[in-house]
## 1
Amino acid sequence: MTQNENSTAPIVRMEKVNKHFGSLHVLQDIDLEVATGEVVVVIGASGSGKSTLIRCINGLEEFQDGHIEVDGNELTPHGKSGKALQKIRTEVGMVFQQFNLFPHLSVLDNVILAPMKVRGWSRADAVETAQRLLERVGISDQAAKYPSQLSGGQQQRVALARALAMEPRLMLFDEPTSALDPEMIGEVLDAMRELAREGMTMIIVTHEMGFAREVADRVIYIHKGEIAEEAPPEKIFDTPEDERTRSFLARVL
Ligand code: ADP
Ligand code: MG
């Protein structure tokens, strides 16, 4: 683990979080702590609550009871978090399955928008940072193009650069490669691998089990809204203890 030794408090703390969509109990007593610098991979069947779980962490979904604390900011049930939610939104970056870039803005403008609007950076400072980040994800030559002119893999790398431009303390990924053609998956995973190596705290929902095994400090298996098992990757993939984990892995590996 590339954990920051100065900081022992977890950056994410979820306690007994419950969420319902109508009669569907989609998250059940979720307890989860994530340490600074830790890479946590969330796996589980479609519909098990993986997206809902990570969307709760940055307040994209409300929950009905329990506590969620992100870097000392507390989210309260029923979406009444006010300032804490704003704070969390500026500190947590997210990359979605569908890249969600602004189609009418160039790549460069996609990346500089939030730092200028939310952080109040000058255009010159934002552009300098954006260029560095686009270089880092290998698309500095695409800065003037529009999203529709890029491949899926390139668009997702722009989305990553855009999230990083806010200097997030935590990055959330929701199936970042699921919408990509197979030949483009590697370039996005490479960029994420590099980020993990640099010590970024990451929570990643993915079906890329090889990647999970390689980068995760811890893997969490969600079954019908519950954390059924969590363990280091070698443990969960090679000797899973829970019958539900075993049966899921037998289907996907
Ligand atoms: P996963 O990401 O693991 O596929 P989700 O978190 O997206 O699962 O969804 C978990 C369950 O909640 C699914 O049964 C899904 O249909 C349901 N669900 C997700 N979003 C909503 C919503 N906005 N309204 C009602 N049900 C939802
Ligand atoms: Mg999902």
## 2
Amino acid sequence: PLQLSHSDVSLPLSAPLSSLADHVAHGFAQTPKSLSSKYFYDAAGSRLFQQIMALPEYYPTRTELSIFQAQGAAIVQALQAGTSAGQPLAVVELGAGDGLKTKILLRELLAQSAAFTYVPVDISPSALEELVASLREELPALPTEPLAAEYTAALTTLAQRPGAKAVLFLGSNIGNFEPDEQRNFLQALAAPLTAADRLLVGFDLRKDPRRIRAAYDDAQGVTAEFNLNLLRRFNTELGADFQLEAWQHYPDYDPSTGAMRSWLVSRRAQTVRVAALGGQAFDFAAWEAIHTENSFKFTLSQIAELAKAAGMRVVEVFQDEAGDFADVVLAR
Ligand code: AVI
């Protein structure tokens, strides 16, 4: 396999990330033009997302953190409830990022003297390298097997790995999928699990629509930079000639469906060429919008329905006092 190395950390890359150029050609052929939010996370995008998580408007990260701080012991117990004492556990986390919240659960697992291996999976090799380096400092006794890969590769890892598993899918990452993709993905996640295994999924809940919208339209403009970074990435990696000042970040929340969507809006009529696609030209009308991200918000009954549709049951729901966010333990 490919090896990425950075200081003393080297990570196996399970497969090359699917081609960015193909994705752009395909996405710009759609109506409306549409790109996958998974491409936000190059090194600069991962850093911007870390800044977003610390913004005053962006409540999900600190709310989930507060749930783990207040109820971490109970969450960790619920994750191990199906396994017999002493049985080694693999804690597989999809989209681990900087692992800030997860470290609370990992410390709790270590304190409960569980024998376990942490398998963080992330699309961003740079974010994962930082996570592994920080774990070596902070939790040196913890066996860690990082995987720089997309979620689908994580499913293969899950299927191939024997023994008890706890799968973490935190931060409302699930909201970045369309509803049918949410169900299909949960179903695929459940398939390699046994009745003893547990899945912990973080869901951002419906709330004051203005608070939700503000979380994606912060006053400092970090989220705008994060969205625009996608175009910057195309310029650097694909030799595209996007003029960043000709684009505007536009977030839009629909309280009737819980769909928080982000767009990049063209401020004028313009043509963009992409060298990696043989200089192919793409026309954008004035105020035409490219869809770049979904961040769905959920109700508790929607979560129960989603679990059921994916062939899983809700074992326990952990929430903050205000009911802003839910961490839900699921089992087959
Ligand atoms: C990673 N994901 C759950 C974040 C979200 O809230 O959808 C990404 C994000 N996009 C803009 N702000 C944060």
